[in-house]
Amino acid sequence: MTLGRMSRPPVQTVAGALLLLAGLAFLVGCQGVSAGPSTRVVVVGQLTLSPASKAFGSVPLGTQQSQTVTLTNSGSSVSVSQVSVSGTGFQLSGITTPLTLNASQSTTFTVAFAPQTTGSASGTVTITSNASDPTLTIALSGTGTATAGQLSVSPTTLALGNVVVDTSGTASGSLTASGASVTVTAATTNDSVFSVGGLSLPVTIPAGQSVPFTVTFSPLTTGAASATLSFSSNAQPSTTTEALTGTGTPAPTHTVNLSWDASTSPNISGYNIYRAAYSGSCGSYSKINTVLNTSTLYTDSTVADGTSYCYAATAVNSSDEESGYSNIVSKVQIPAS
Q1: Neighbours of 153 (CB within 10 A)
Q2: What is the rounded distance in angstroms from the CA atom of residue 23 to the CA atom of residue 21?
Q3: pLDDT-derived band at 151, boundaries 50, 70, 90
Q4: Confidence of residue 283 (pLDDT cuts 50, 70, 90)
Q5: Counting CB atoms within 10 angstroms of each CB, which of 38, 279, 296, 334 has the fewest?
């Protein structure tokens, strides 16, 4: 008997079947529902600072300048464990740790600069937390400057009264420095009929001391006049002002002629003449001669019509020593017209 030849199953067919089964198994696995644990997404808190840096500018020694900083959380709850400041002269206040900031919550705190020395200074505020950026910083800067003094003027309004047109009248004031020495560099008025004198500029006034000055009023027309006297200095503020007032009056139609006996004291250089308004009694005397009068005669041509006056004279020797008033002439009446 002849045996027939047996054929072997093709290997390709078996392999193809195995691949198909594997593919079905893969599809079934993909379409099935997983019974394993689900994945949780955690949103980490995020802190921001506003502003991101602080510049204090120039701050005088002995003073302090403060600014506010805002800390905001834009994520989940954040725990702030520490807030600190470094740098000479910088200070921190208004915040206590540990501190919890919930989502969208903000808090503010204060950073101050009180310079200890002149010159530039820098520092840093550092915030430590469990936020996405665990360390936040703010750059700080400032400049310490020499303590600025203050300059005051007295009186605040200087009244020069009635002055005859085309003549001049003067009044005195004073400047006082406080806190620190002040250097005055300029003194100007905004009306040329008022001028300032008696100061040699620039002049440095030590703290607690004063210097005098004079203002001259030289009206060109009749009527009231006013102006502002401005002093420029290195004080704080840098400009100090004084109000000036005066009235130009018509030339008088009357004069008062004065004469007196010469002083018998030795070394007499001349005489000063004083005048006061009279209203029931003699008022406060003011010197009316602008230079020392070397004779025993004087004509007062600055009297106002309808006014009464008192007059006195003093003697001045070569050592610039001045005597007391002479006999006083009272109630010298000037006619009204």
Answers
A1: 20
A2: 5
A3: very high
A4: very high
A5: 38
Query: Residue 242 pairs with which residues in a beta bridge?
Result: 229
With a CB cutoff of 8 Å and minimum separation 6, the contacts of 172 are: 198, 212, 213, 214, 215
Which option is the CATH number for 47-145: 3.40.190.150, 3.40.50.2000, 3.40.30.10, 2.60.40.10? 2.60.40.10
What's the pTM value of the predicted model, to 2 decimals?
0.45
Burial of 41 (0-12, 13-18, 19+ CB in 10 A): exposed
Domain 150-249 grouped into CATH 2.60.40.10: yes
- pLDDT tens figures, 128-147: 999 888 999 999 998 888 77
At the topology level, CATH places domain 256-333 in: Immunoglobulin-like (2.60.40)
Distance CA 50, CA 69 (A): 6
The reply to whether 150-249 and 256-333 are identical in fold is yes
